[in-house]
Amino acid sequence: MSVSLRSLPRVPARLRGCIVPLAILLVWDVLTRFKLVNTLLVARPAAVLEVFLLQWREGDLIPELLASLRRDLTGFALGSFAGVAVGSVMGLSRVADRLLGPTFHAAKQVAIFAWIPLISVWFGSEEPAKVVFISLSAFYPVVVSTFEGIRSVGREHVEVARVFRFTHGQILRKVVLPGALPAIFAGLHLGLVYSWLGTLGAEYLLAPGLGIGNLMIDGREQFKMDKVLLGVIIAGGIGFTLNALSSRLEGRLSRWRVKLA
User: Fold this and answer.
1) Domains annotated on the chain, with CATH
2) pLDDT tens digit string along 117-155?
3) How many CB atoms are closer than 10 A to CB 72?
4) How much is the pTM?
5) SS3 content of the chain, % helix, strand, coil (to 5)
6) Cβ pair 159, 48 in contact under 8 A
7) What is the dihedral of CA 218, 224, 226, 228, to 10 degrees?
8) Contacts of residue 171, Cβ cutoff 8 Å, sequence gap at least 6
9) For the chain, which ranges sit under pLDDT 70?
């Protein structure tokens, strides 16, 4: 007897994103439970859960999480502020674009991890160096998005504002900035994602300290794959949460912009 796809129960929209993770978890459990993979290299899900509970009870996990988040948000704030400032100057001034643009675009082509040797020499390998590296991770996408957002504002809108005798400040506040906001928000969103990736890279490649990266390093050195996998899962979960929160904030700010328009 044939079964129509329409007759199958539908999965609620909010739960559809859980299908693939649950499937991966099931395959992971089956492979490790029946030893179809080397369990010394791939720990069982139950072992990862045990390590999580142990870390939580001993109070080691929260300081690691807070250290990574504080480092991430500090670097993101500095990098995004500098990115919006530089992108705005380049977008508003043709002269500044000609002066700064070639250097910026050349520096942008350098892989972010290639800056670590210079950063470690200039700032050491402790907390300042990590924050600088994270800031640099957020800086580039924010500059590009801010620049493109400002340049995408139609000249006809600016001309109409000039007809109504708007001052330069009024044109910037009431025409250019509202028109560029979606691109700036997109750049900040991307900068937040990149800053989290930079946080993990900084913790892994610079001096050891509190952080999720250090959790994975400890697991690697002790050859405890359950600890390494726990760090990977936590890093993915935090990245997903930051992305979701920034998407929601971007949506609310966009609605606010529409109301003001």
Assistant:
1) 61-211 (1.10.3720.10)
2) 999 999 988 899 999 999 999 999 999 999 998 888 867
3) 29
4) 0.85
5) 80, 0, 20
6) no
7) 40
8) 158, 161, 162
9) 1-14, 154, 156-157, 159-160, 162-164, 253-261
